[in-house]
Amino acid sequence: MVKIRLMRTGKKKRASYRVVVANATSPRDGRIIESIGHYQPRADPSVIVIDNDRAVYWLRQGAQPSQPVRKLLDISGAWGEFSGRPRVTAASTAGSTPEAEVSPAAPRATPAASVAEGGEEGSSEE
User: Fold this and answer.
1) Domain residue ranges of the chain, discontinuous segments joined by +
2) Cα separation, 21 vs 41, whole angstroms
3) What is the value of pTM for the model shown?
4) Cα dihedral 79/85/86/88 (nearest 10)
5) Quick check: bond before 45 cis, omega within 30?
6) pLDDT tens-digit series, residues 93-119
7) Measuring CA to CA, how many Å separate 17 from each of 12, 26, 60?
8) Which fold has domain 2-83?
9) pLDDT of residue 41
């Protein structure tokens, strides 16, 4: 089985990682098939560079990502491209949220207003 996983590089206590495609039975820092990116968690902000085209290619070939790599692929957008859903960013949700909140609120207010008006008319007729 082929896995997409992290390969540790860097100095002691200064870890950085390469995102690699490797056979599941190979050691962590052993033989790899292809290097598709790198990840530097200690940088501020963290640096994530992944070749999304190659990542999607390997996912379609059946490669299984490890849990940390799955999160990195989700951040880079490769996982969304693979699964067929677009990547959701803070900017895109900020623009669509107010429209979504306004639309449902208007129909709810309209029936309540008509019921209240109907009740007032009924009491004035008696």
Assistant:
1) 2-83
2) 19
3) 0.63
4) -80
5) yes
6) 665 545 444 445 445 555 555 555 555
7) 13, 16, 23
8) S16 Ribosomal Protein; Chain: A; (3.30.1320)
9) 92
